[in-house]
Every structure is written in structure tokens, then in C-alpha cells.
Write a structure and sequence with these properties.
Blueprint lengths: L4 E313 L3 E7 L5 E7 L3 E313 L14 H16 L1
Antiparallel strand pairs: 1-4, 2-3
């Protein structure tokens, strides 16, 4: 019998503890605070201001004014003017003009140009560069994983499905259709139509026309015309006129004006202001979480299968519409629309049909399960601190001041002036003259004349004629006709059939499989190497080269030529001409006239007035006010917090010497026993 040994195994025990914690509770209270404000009070005042105003007074009077009117007298004359003109004559001649042409001659020359080229030189050298390479070392391992695979097993079976087929049977028939057709018959006949024409007949006549023509006779005679010329005589005079002018005088004076200013006075105070701060606190809680796992579920559902068949249908198509003419009893032709017989057509139509089948489907459904996890939670804890805040108050302090204001008063002082005004008088002296004018007298003498006018008259003579017209008459004769229309009838005959369908039944069988999953572990091993890099150093060497640059020179070669130009010489020949120039003379006759002019005389009268000038004064009044200031207090309120701790209790259990051959333990959970054993050994050492 094997010996029984014991070993210590640590079993986890969960304990629940309670802890008293404190959280801040804030309470805000509104406190009354008194403060003083300065309110400005404005007062309206009036002061008396005296000033002098010059008021104008206007006097109107009438005065006789003499003025001179210049009356123009225009006379027309004609004078003879002789002038000399020059007539232009042209003479053509030829002149030889020598000229020189400069022809360019180009020559190509070469010059040497020196230039410097920087030639790059490359020098290679070796540099040792140490570097480290991390070389991965891969190790291949294999682990076995047991898993379950659902295997689908399919069973086939036969099912008989009866169905009915409708077979179409067509039969051909012919029916007799009688209809009436109107056949047009035309008749020709003659009609005598009388008509009248008018023929014009022209006749010529001569008429004697007597008329009177006035003939003008002109007789010339002379008339003595006396006229008077008014000659103006001008005389110079001087008169004295008195006028009053007002001279403005400005007077300055001082006025004392009191005023008040408000000077601000600032005071600084310090008060405690509560400030709310936050900090993060971590708590651990046990949470229940939900996971899912796949589970096979077999379902049945109905599937619709779409089918159908072709069926033949008959359709009637109406015939075309024709126009039929008929003669009315009064001879008019009437048109009528007539429908021709139609035809029957056959066409195939698809008739759909649906069938239902039950199908089994195996699907995988996610099944939920619950497990517990210890999750850390962060919460924000608030606490209050106080900080000093400085604030400034302002109060207004009144100060009394006085300022001197300079004002001006204006008034007018009258002054009398005398001025001499020169004026001119004009008197008219009359002179009598006599001139002789040639006048013409016109009178008319009547003369009688005779003229002959030819005119034509037209009269219409009527003539009677007769003509024959050929006319047509259309009559319709009814005819009966017979046509045979073929048509087809369709009847459906049912036939019963049976078809066999192969169906599939599916069910799932679970099989246990084991697969080997290869995986690779990788560890990094460092290896030191040295490589040689070839580097290049580039520098330039100056080299001098010479190149030949072609350039072109141009020199001018003179060539002498002669060309002939046709020129024209222009000279003038004087000619004397005479023209008659009309001119007009104008002489001015002065005439004195009188008119009444209304004038005004203005003088200024001083008048003293009084006005009230408003002004505003400001004084500051203190006013006590009360406002509510929030005050926040914080106190710590206790509350109970429950948490769980886990500790391991040692348990003694028997152990057999021989290895246990039971397969109840899952290979995936073997790591737990080793983990708890190591944890228990560490706790005992402590």
C-alpha cells in the first residue's frame, strides 16, 4: 500500500471590510455687505445777460431819374472794291540729282579669349565604421490545443410531388361577315349660264375757257420828307448828400464763475476668497462582466420557389376608319366615318406560380456567460482652499473752485458823413432837315385771255352673252358584299403528373480534434562588426584654356550714282478784279427819358435787450447701498465605504506517491497550482 503524504495548499478567502471616509460638503450663504456710492446731482441755473442790438429802420421815398436812350439808325450802301489776285501757273522740268550709297562689306575675324575652368578632382579613402547588429535567434516549438468541430451529416431522400399541367388545345373556325359598300357613280350634264359684259366707248370734246390775268404797271415819283434830328447837350453838376454810418465798439469785462470738481480717492482692501480644487482618487471595485460563446442551433424555414407557364390569349384588333360620302336630297355631299371590321390575334402570356418548401438550416448562436473582474475606478474629490484677493474702492471728494471768464459786449456808435456826388444832365436840341425820297406806285390792269381744253368722256355699253358649263353629279349606289373571317378558339385541358424530388436533411455531429500549433520564440543576440566605407573628397584645380571667338567687322564702301527727278516750278500771274461790297452805317441818336425810382434810406437805432443764459452745476451725493455677497463654507461629511480583500489560507491535503493518471484536470489550468505554490512560499518567508 503506498504511503500517504500531505502537502499544504493555499486557498483564497475573500473578506469584506467597511471603512469610514470623509467627503467635502459645501454650503453657500448670502451675506449682506454695505458700501457707499457717489451719485452726481445736476442743478440747472440761469444768469441774466444784457446786450445791445442795433435795429435797422427803413424809410422809402420816390425820386425822378433822367436817363438817356440811344436810338440806332441803320443805312445800307454799296461800294466798289478793286483787288488784285494771283493765278498759279505750273512748269515741269527735269533735274539730275547725284547721290552716294554706302554698301556694307562684312569680314570675319578671330580673336583669342582666355578663360579659366575649375576641374574637379576626386580622392577616395577608407574609413572603418564599427556597428552592432542584433541578430534574432528563433526557436520553434509546438503546443497541442483540443477543440470541438461540428460535422454536418447530410441524408438524401425521395419525395413524390403531384402536380397538374394545363395543356392548351387550339381550334380554327371561319365565320361569315356581311357588310354594305357605297359605290360612287358620276353623271355629266350641260348647264346654260347667261352673263353680261360692259364695253367702254370713248368720245373727245373741246371746251373754251376764258380767264383774266392781272398785269402790274409801276410809276415812279419823288416826295419831300421833312425830318427832325435831336442833338444831345450834356452838363456836369455836383450835389451834397449826408449819410449816417454805425461804428461797432467792443467792450470786455470779467465775470467770476464758481464750479465744483470731484477728485477720486482710491482705497485698497484684502478679502479671503474660497477656491474649489479637485484631486483624483482611485477605488477598486468588483464588476460582473458578460462574455459570449458560440452554440449550434438548428432552425427550419419555408422557402418560396418561383415558376410558371406560358398561356395563349386572344386579342381583338379593330379595323381602320374610312370616310364614306353620301348625297343628300338637296344635292349636298355628306361625309361619314365608317369603322372597318377588325381581326383576332393570338399571343402567349407568362403566368407565374409559386411553390413553398421547408428547409432546415444549422446556425451558430452566441450564448452569454458571466464572470467577475476587479476594476479600478477613478473619482474626483473636491476640497476648498482660500486665497487672498485685493480689491480697490473709489469715493469721490468734492473741491470748490472759481474761475474768471472774460466776456465781450458790442454796441454801435452812429457817425454822420457828407459826400459830394457828381451827376450829368442832358438836354436835347432839335434840328429840322428835308430829304427827297424816290417812291414807286404800283397798280394792276386786268387783261382777258382765252384757252381751249380738250377732255375725253367714257360711257359703258352692256352686251348679253351665253356660255355652256359642264358639271358633274356624284351618286352613291349600295352594294352588299360578304367576307369570311377566320378565328381561333382556345380551351385548356388538365393533365395530372407526378415528379420525384431529391431532398436533403442536414444534422450536426460533434467530433473532438486535437491540433498542434507551432509557435516561434525569438531572442535577440548582439554581434559586433566593422565595415569599411569608401568616402570621397572633392577639390577643384584651375586650368587655363584658350578658345577662338569669331566676330564680324563691317566697313562701308561708297558708290556714286545719278538719278533724274521730275520737278515742278510754280509761279503766279497777277490779275485785277472788281467786286461790289455792301456795307451798313449806323448812327446813334440820343433821347432823354424820365422814370420814377423808389429808393430806401436806412438808419440804425440802438436797443438794449436782456437774455437768460442757462448753466448747470454738479454736486456729488453719497448714497449707502446693501448688496448680497455669497459666502461658501466647507465641512467634511463621513460616509461608509465597503471594500473586499483577498487572503490565502493554508489547507492540508493528501498526496499520492505515484503520479495521478486522472484526466479530469484540464491542461490549460495547470499553471494555477504552480502560481499559488510560489505565492504561498513567498508569504511564509515573510
Amino acid at each position: 500500500m503506498p504511503a500517504v503524504q500531505h502537502r499544504i495548499r493555499y486557498q483564497p478567502v475573500v473578506e469584506t471590510h467597511s471603512q469610514v471616509c470623509y467627503r467635502p460638503v459645501y454650503h453657500t450663504v448670502m451675506e449682506q455687505e454695505c458700501y457707499t456710492t457717489c451719485k452726481p446731482v445736476y442743478e440747472q441755473h440761469f444768469r441774466e445777460h444784457r446786450y445791445t442790438v442795433c435795429k435797422p429802420q427803413t424809410e422809402w421815398y420816390e425820386e425822378q431819374c433822367a436817363y438817356t436812350v440811344c436810338k440806332p439808325i441803320i443805312e445800307h450802301y454799296v461800294k466798289e472794291k478793286r483787288y488784285c489776285t494771283y493765278r498759279t501757273c505750273y512748269q515741269d522740268y527735269t533735274v539730275a540729282v547725284p547721290y552716294t550709297i554706302c554698301r556694307p562689306v562684312y569680314e570675319t575675324c578671330y580673336k583669342d579669349v582666355c578663360y579659366t575652368v575649375c576641374k574637379p578632382m576626386v580622392q577616395c579613402y577608407q574609413v572603418a565604421v564599427p556597428y552592432t547588429v542584433c541578430k534574432p535567434v528563433y526557436e520553434h516549438r509546438v503546443k497541442q490545443i483540443c477543440y470541438t468541430v461540428p460535422k454536418t451529416v447530410v441524408n438524401y431522400y425521395q419525395v413524390q410531388i403531384p402536380y397538374t399541367v394545363c395543356k392548351t388545345v387550339y381550334e380554327n373556325h371561319v365565320r361569315e361577315h356581311r357588310y354594305t359598300v357605297k359605290k360612287p357613280v358620276q353623271e355629266t350634264y350641260q348647264v346654260m349660264v347667261p352673263y353680261t359684259t360692259c364695253r367702254p366707248v370713248y368720245e373727245k370734246h373741246v371746251t373754251e375757257h376764258r380767264y383774266c390775268v392781272p398785269r402790274t404797271v409801276v410809276q415812279t415819283y419823288q416826295v419831300a420828307v421833312p425830318y427832325t434830328v435831336c442833338k444831345p447837350v450834356y452838363e456836369q453838376h455836383v450835389r451834397e448828400e449826408k449819410c449816417i454810418t454805425y461804428k461797432p465798439v467792443t467792450e470786455s469785462y470779467q465775470v467770476c464763475i464758481p464750479y465744483t470738481t470731484c477728485k477720486p480717492s482710491y482705497e485698497t482692501h484684502v478679502r479671503k476668497v474660497p477656491q474649489l480644487c479637485t484631486r483624483q482618487v482611485t477605488d477598486y471595485r468588483m464588476e460582473c462582466r458578460t462574455g459570449t460563446q458560440l452554440e449550434n442551433v438548428e432552425t427550419q424555414h419555408c422557402v418560396k420557389i418561383c415558376g410558371g407557364e406560358w398561356q395563349e390569349t386572344r386579342e381583338y384588333i379593330p379595323g381602320p376608319t374610312t370616310i364614306q360620302c353620301s348625297t343628300m336630297p338637296d344635292g349636298r355631299v355628306a361625309q361619314q366615318h365608317v369603322q372597318c371590321p377588325g381581326i383576332w390575334t393570338c399571343k402567349k402570356v407568362w403566368v407565374p406560380r409559386e411553390e413553398s418548401k421547408i428547409v432546415k438550416v444549422c446556425t451558430q448562436v452566441c450564448k452569454p456567460f458571466t464572470y467577475t473582474v476587479c476594476v479600478p475606478h477613478c473619482r474626483t474629490e473636491c476640497y476648498t482652499t482660500y486665497r487672498d484677493e485685493c480689491y480697490t474702492t473709489c469715493r469721490m471728494v468734492q473741491e470748490q473752485h472759481t474761475r474768471m471768464e472774460t466776456r465781450h459786449r458790442s454796441y454801435c456808435v452812429p457817425e454822420v458823413h457828407t459826400k459830394c456826388i457828381p451827376y450829368t444832365t442832358c438836354r436835347i436840341e432839335k434840328e429840322c432837315h428835308v430829304r427827297y425820297e424816290c417812291r414807286k406806285q404800283c397798280y394792276t390792269i386786268q387783261e382777258q385771255k382765252v384757252c381751249y381744253k380738250t377732255h375725253t368722256t367714257c360711257r359703258m355699253i352692256q352686251e348679253q352673252h351665253v356660255k355652256c358649263e359642264t358639271r358633274h353629279r356624284c351618286n352613291y349606289v349600295c352594294e352588299e358584299k360578304v367576307c369570311y373571317i377566320p378565328y381561333k378558339t382556345c380551351r385548356v385541358e388538365k393533365e395530372c403528373h407526378v415528379r420525384c424530388e431529391t431532398r436533403k436533411q442536414c444534422h450536426t455531429v460533434y467530433e473532438q480534434h486535437v491540433k498542434s500549433v507551432p509557435y516561434t520564440t525569438c531572442r535577440i543576440e548582439k554581434e559586433c562588426h566593422v565595415r569599411y566605407e569608401t568616402k570621397k573628397r572633392c577639390y577643384t584645380i584651375q586650368e587655363t584654356h584658350v578658345k577662338r571667338v569669331p566676330y564680324t567687322t563691317c566697313k562701308m564702301v561708297k558708290e556714286c550714282h545719278v538719278r533724274y527727278e521730275c520737278r515742278r516750278q510754280c509761279y503766279t500771274v497777277p490779275e485785277e478784279k472788281v467786286c461790289h461790297v455792301p456795307y451798313t452805317t449806323c448812327r446813334i441818336e440820343n433821347q432823354i427819358c424820365y422814370k420814377t425810382v423808389r429808393k430806401c434810406r436806412t438808419h440804425w437805432v440802438a436797443e438794449e435787450k436782456v437774455c437768460c443764459i442757462p448753466y448747470t452745476t454738479c454736486r456729488m451725493e453719497q448714497e449707502q447701498k446693501v448688496r448680497c455677497v455669497p459666502r461658501t463654507t466647507c465641512k467634511m461629511e463621513p460616509y461608509c465605504h465597503t471594500y473586499q480583500t483577498c487572503r490565502y489560507v493554508p489547507v492540508c491535503e493528501p498526496v499520492c506517491e505515484e503520479p495521478c493518471t486522472t484526466t479530469s484536470c484540464h491542461p490549460a489550468t495547470e499553471w494555477k497550482s504552480g502560481f499559488f505554490h510560489k505565492l504561498g512560499s513567498r508569504l511564509t518567508c515573510k
